[in-house]
């Protein structure tokens, strides 16, 4: 089990002093689905980017904590008592990923010349390796030295092959792509290059499925999808929660996806803060009444 | 200004006679060499890009007197190819194909075009002639040169007869390194009607070396000349790659990749001359500069007044990995026939921070992410390469240079 905790989070754009987050408090636990809603400019996407460590934002106050339980990463990785809580703000984006944070991008980067397969296998192996480093104790270091001894053996194949080899990875990728009903040709295409909007979003969910995060923050994963693709993406998100126990923080403008991915909790963001939280019924009420209703309720009518 | 006096002091007719004599060249070739030697005094350095207050590449500062050691050329050379084509050393070609040489030698690159072409013509002691007879398809011709002397002057001629094809790799590296070395190469390609030539080069000389090369081709009717121009070595390289599309419906592609680091300096020209109808040119160069390296790129698409129905495209992209490296690019489009579809662009930029964040947020460490982005940047160039050895080695050398970095 893992728990992501945002405490009184304040953030601004690193170049300039435009304040965007003004005290966000939020908790997401493994296995839970949270919907984060709110009007444009309320700070939803910034919240997502700050959690993942985007360099364009500076945190001026507050904390982003990740609490882990003993066997979060299986039996192989022992998490000592003093390694249970991490302040993500002290960590690089790739270290946060190694601890189980995943950000699904609203606008995924198009990367020419790097195939999906190559990228994802690199990411998966880097994540495993970084995790070992983060939780390494003296015993672990000794074990690593032994490993190096093996790596010099000609039987072991190339040293940079990583924990998950090419053949094994192909198997994982194929299985996950089938689950998401993705065409296998995607595997050899360049990362998001020339993908349609829907294909990019599907690809974000695929990457989450392969990287098996503890907490996935999905930034408008539903926008611009046709109904078939929306169902595929929703199935993928539900599978993350049901099969891997991932906690989901789903940022959305629309009630529509919440019909397929039922949230346990709904939060409404206004002016850089969580203005209101509730159960799934809150989303329905928003659909009927709009955000002004929340604004009126929180700030009181004039 | 004339640069001719720079080497005149230690170059003599006797030296040129000795080189030509050792190769058992006919009288007309000796005469061509001697004329080039005599012309040195009058000839200037090749043109370089100038921006206000600055000559980007200063060839005048090179100390040719100490760089050029005409009678002590030493190299290791492989000249291999499939049986169907003739791949001959220069001395063999002189014996077996004098008429071919008489027809083509110096017909595409004027020996007296500038000081450095004349120097190369007067002093070249090694070279290769590739002759592809009519209808023959020849793959994977390879010329591998390892320079072991202070200076080395090389000449390459490719002649393809009607409806033949050939893919070629010519590569240079340094065997015995010295503090300063000079490699000079002239390449001429005569592509016959409806023939196809891909000539790829991989220049990976020592980073103490200087390099001057001119590679030029003439494409006859329906002929295609594709160039791959890879530059990784030397402290200073000045190259030109160009095609004259002289036959109707002829085509050319000039694809370049370079990666400069430390204080390397690359001055690269890519040029196409549209001189017939329905001709097509595509110029694509991608390069990286790091540390305090500099790159200067000049691309010219020249559409002549008789070049009806021309298609001509040019793109140059430079990726700067350090704040101190410099890149200058000047794509030029000269159109004298309105029936032309053309585009040209050049960009200089750094690694995209959003791309990097996308990759690191998935767990890839920043160094590997950067390396993947740079390797990916070169992929469109690598995809154009026909000869596996060139593609694999270019990719490998780029990867090794990246991993050398912090």
TrEMBL record, chain A:
Domain ABC transporter: 4-296
Origin: domain of life: Archaea
Classification via Pfam families: ABC_tran
Region feature (Disordered): 133-163
Keywords: ATP-binding, Nucleotide-binding
SUPFAM superfamilies, per database record: P-loop containing nucleoside triphosphate hydrolases (SSF52540)
GO terms for MF: ATP binding; ATP hydrolysis activity
InterPro entries: AAA+_ATPase (IPR003593), ABC_transporter-like_ATP-bd (IPR003439), FeS-cluster_ATPase_SufC (IPR010230), P-loop_NTPase (IPR027417)
Biased composition (Acidic residues): 133-150
PANTHER family: ABC TRANSPORTER I FAMILY MEMBER 6, CHLOROPLASTIC
Name by which UniProt lists this protein: ABC transporter ATP-binding protein
Automatic annotation (TrEMBL), chain B:
Domain (SUF system FeS cluster assembly SufBD core): residue spans on this chain: 146-377
One Pfam match: SufBD_N
GO biological process, one term: iron-sulfur cluster assembly
InterPro entries attached to this UniProt entry: Fe-S_cluster_assembly_SufBD (IPR055346), SUF_FeS_clus_asmbl_SufBD_core (IPR000825), SUF_FeS_clus_asmbl_SufBD_sf (IPR037284), SUF_FeS_clus_asmbl_SufD (IPR011542), SufBD_N (IPR045595)
Domain of life: Archaea
Domain (SUF system FeS cluster assembly SufBD N-terminal): residue spans on this chain: 74-139
Family (UniProt): Belongs to the iron-sulfur cluster assembly SufBD family.
Protein name stated in the entry: Fe-S cluster assembly protein SufD
Organism per entry: Natrinema salsiterrestre
Lineage: Archaea, Methanobacteriati, Methanobacteriota, Stenosarchaea group, Halobacteria
């Amino acid at each position: 089990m893992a728990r992501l905790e945002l405490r009184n989070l304040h953030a601004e754009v690193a170049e300039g002093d435009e304040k965007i987050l003004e005290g966000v408090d939020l908790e997401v636990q493994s296995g839970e689905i949270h919907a984060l809603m709110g009007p444009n400019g309320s700070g939803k996407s910034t919240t997502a980017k700050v959690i993942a460590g985007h360099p364009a934002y500076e945190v001026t106050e507050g904390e982003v904590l990740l609490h882990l339980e003993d066997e979060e990463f299986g039996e192989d990785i022992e998490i000592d008592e003093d390694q249970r809580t991490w302040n993500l703000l002290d960590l690089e984006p790739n270290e946060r990923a190694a601890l189980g944070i995943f950000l699904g991008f609203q606008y995924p980067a198009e990367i020419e010349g790097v195939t999906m397969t190559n990228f994802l296998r690199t990411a998966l192996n880097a994540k495993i390796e970084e995790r070992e480093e983060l939780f390494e104790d003296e015993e672990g270091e000794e074990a690593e030295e032994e490993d190096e001894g093996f790596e010099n053996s000609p039987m072991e194949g190339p040293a940079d092959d990583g924990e998950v080899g090419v053949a094994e990875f192909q198997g994982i990728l194929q299985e996950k792509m089938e689950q998401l009903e993705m065409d296998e040709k995607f595997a050899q295409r360049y990362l998001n290059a020339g993908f349609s909007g829907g294909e990019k979003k599907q690809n974000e969910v695929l990457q989450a499925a392969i990287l098996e995060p503890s907490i996935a923050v999905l930034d408008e994963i539903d926008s611009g999808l046709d109904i078939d693709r929306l169902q595929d993406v929703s199935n993928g998100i539900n599978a993350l929660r049901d099969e891997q126990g991932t906690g989901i923080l789903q940022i959305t403008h629309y009630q529509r996806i919440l019909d397929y991915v039922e949230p346990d909790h709904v939060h409404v963001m206004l002016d850089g803060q969580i203005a209101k939280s509730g159960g799934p019924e809150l989303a329905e009420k928003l659909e009927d009444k709009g955000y002004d209703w929340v604004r009126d309720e929180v700030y009181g009518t004039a | 200004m004339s640069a001719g006096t720079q080497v005149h002091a230690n170059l003599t007719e006797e030296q040129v006679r000795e080189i030509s004599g050792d190769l058992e060249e006919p009288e007309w070739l000796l005469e061509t060499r001697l004329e080039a030697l005599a012309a040195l005094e009058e000839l200037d350095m090749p043109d370089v890009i100038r921006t206000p207050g600055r000559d980007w590449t200063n060839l005048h500062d090179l100390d040719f007197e100490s760089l050029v050691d005409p009678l002590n050329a030493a190299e290791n050379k492989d000249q291999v190819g499939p049986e169907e084509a003739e791949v001959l050393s220069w001395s063999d070609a002189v014996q077996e194909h004098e008429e071919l040489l008489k027809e083509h030698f110096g017909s595409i690159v004027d020996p007296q075009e500038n000081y450095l072409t004349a120097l190369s013509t007067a002093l070249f002691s090694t070279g290769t002639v590739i002759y592809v007879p009519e209808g023959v398809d020849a793959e994977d011709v390879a010329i591998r040169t390892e320079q072991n002397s202070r200076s080395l002057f090389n000449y390459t001629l490719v002649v393809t007869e009607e409806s033949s094809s050939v893919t070629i790799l010519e590569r240079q590296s340094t065997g015995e390194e010295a503090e300063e070395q000079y490699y000079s190469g002239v390449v001429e390609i005569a592509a016959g009607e409806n023939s196809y030539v891909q000539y790829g080069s991989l220049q990976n000389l020592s980073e103490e070396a200087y390099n001057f090369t001119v590679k030029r081709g003439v494409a006859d009717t329906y002929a295609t000349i594709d160039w791959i121009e890879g530059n990784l070595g030397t402290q200073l390289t000045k190259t030109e790659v160009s095609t004259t599309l002289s036959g109707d419906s002829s085509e050319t592609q000039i694809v370049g990749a370079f990666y400069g680091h430390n204080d390397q300096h690359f001055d690269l020209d890519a040029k196409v001359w549209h001189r017939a109808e329905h001709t097509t040119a595509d110029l694509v160069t991608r390069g990286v500069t790091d540390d305090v390296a500099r790159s200067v790129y000049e691309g010219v698409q020249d559409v002549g007044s008789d070049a009806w129905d021309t298609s001509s495209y040019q793109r140059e992209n430079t990726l700067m990995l350090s704040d101190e490296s410099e890149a200058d690019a000047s794509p030029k489009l000269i159109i004298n026939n309105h029936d032309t579809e053309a585009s040209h662009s050049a960009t200089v930029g750094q690694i995209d921070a959003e791309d990097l964040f996308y990759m690191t947020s998935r767990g890839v460490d920043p160094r590997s992410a950067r390396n993947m982005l740079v390797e990916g940047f070169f992929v469109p160039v690598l995809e154009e390469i026909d000869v596996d050895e060139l593609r694999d080695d270019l990719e490998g050398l780029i990867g090794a240079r990246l991993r050398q970095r912090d």
